[in-house]
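Please fill in the sequence for the structure shown.

STRUCTURE ENCODING:
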């Protein structure tokens, strides 16, 4: 999929139209984990000095069966370091398939709302809620949204992001 068709680019278009001056810098890396994001964070914060940080990490931790408490610690540290430089943080929640069993999935799901409440940051529940169960909006792997899903994802995030722009 071309970059300009993805939800990040679509969200940037909305920002430019309604709140000129904000620029989205997409620092995502396919397959990245919360530990990888934390390892790259200082460089990202130094380079961009963000006003707002959209934190969408953890799905790959879950797909690999990594420790939810460790993921939580990594996400907590990302939020705290970002807030330390003055960035507002919005947590984008993820879900995973049930491969690792009910207990693991429940532990994983609890991380996002608990972290949001503990750190008093906005939380977007599962950003793929409207698309994940629609095969027409998902790639063949059943995990990643396709081009049709991108406007839906952008709209969902936009609905939450507006509160941080005021």
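FILLED IN BY: designer on duty
SEQUENCE:
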């Amino acid at each position: 999929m071309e970059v300009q068709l993805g939800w990040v680019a679509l969200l940037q278009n909305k920002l430019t139209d309604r709140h000129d001056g904000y620029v989205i810098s997409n620092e995502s890396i396919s397959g990245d984990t919360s530990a990888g994001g934390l390892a790259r964070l200082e460089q990202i914060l130094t380079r961009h000095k963000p006003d707002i940080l959209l934190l969408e990490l953890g799905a790959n931790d879950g797909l690999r069966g990594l420790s939810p408490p460790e993921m939580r610690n990594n996400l907590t540290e990302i939020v705290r370091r970002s807030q330390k430089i003055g960035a507002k943080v919005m947590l984008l929640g993820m879900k995973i398939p049930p491969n690792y069993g009910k207990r693991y999935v429940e532990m994983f799901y609890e991380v996002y709302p608990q972290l949001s409440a503990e750190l008093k940051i906005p939380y977007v529940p599962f950003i793929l809620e409207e698309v994940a169960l629609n095969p027409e909006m998902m790639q063949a792997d059943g995990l990643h949204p396709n081009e049709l899903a991108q406007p839906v994802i952008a709209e969902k995030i936009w609905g939450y992001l507006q509160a941080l722009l005021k």
